[in-house]
């Protein structure tokens, strides 16, 4: 069976291992822009590698705002998938980003904070920085709908 976010068993096993790289491998755009993850003393940190293809303003050079937003959105979604109480698939309802500084062509890091997890929705805050975590280049807030993987939903209907 091919690995997929739609498989409840795969999602449960991946969460149990804390294998964010396995999750990232299934997101083609994350691979394309150079997203990876690592664990430090404070938890999970996402990294956006400096790639020439991610530049939006060649004069500075600066990262494209859409790349920064996609990086932060990916980080929030995957962080929530690992941090949630139960294996669920988050779907973005609302995404709001504040660009605070120029994102230069340099390694960019992001850390997420799960503000609230309810039965149906979650709120996540993301902060992205380059040299100093206390000087973010952007902050974002996301509201996400929590849903069961498709095979889990089918299984729960069959047992009803």
Automatic annotation (TrEMBL):
UniProt xrefs under InterPro entries: HotDog_dom_sf (IPR029069), Thioestr_dom (IPR006683)
Enzyme class, broadest EC rank: hydrolase
Alphabetic keyword roster: Hydrolase
Domain Thioesterase: 63-135
SUPFAM superfamilies per the UniProt record, alphabetical: Thioesterase/thiol ester dehydrase-isomerase
GO MF annotation terms: hydrolase activity
One matching Pfam family: 4HBT
Transmembrane segments: none
PANTHER family: 1,4-DIHYDROXY-2-NAPHTHOYL-COA THIOESTERASE 1, THIOESTERASE DOMAIN-CONTAINING PROTEIN
Protein name (Swiss-Prot/TrEMBL): PaaI family thioesterase
Native species: Litchfieldella rifensis
């Amino acid at each position: 069976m091919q690995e997929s976010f739609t498989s409840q068993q795969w999602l449960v096993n991946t969460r149990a291992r804390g294998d964010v790289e396995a999750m990232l491998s299934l997101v083609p755009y994350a691979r394309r822009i150079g997203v990876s993850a690592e664990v430090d003393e404070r938890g999970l940190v996402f990294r956006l590698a400096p790639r020439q293809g991610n530049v939006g303003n060649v004069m500075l050079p600066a990262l494209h705002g859409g790349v920064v937003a996609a990086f932060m959105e990916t980080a929030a979604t995957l962080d929530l998938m690992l941090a949630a109480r139960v294996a669920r698939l988050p779907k973005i309802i609302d995404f709001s980003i504040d660009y605070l500084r120029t994102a230069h062509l340099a390694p960019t890091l992001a850390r997420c904070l799960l503000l609230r997890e309810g039965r149906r929705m979650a709120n996540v805050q993301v902060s992205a920085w380059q040299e100093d975590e206390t000087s973010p280049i952007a902050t974002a807030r996301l509201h996400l709908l929590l849903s069961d993987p498709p095979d889990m939903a089918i299984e729960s209907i069959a047992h009803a």
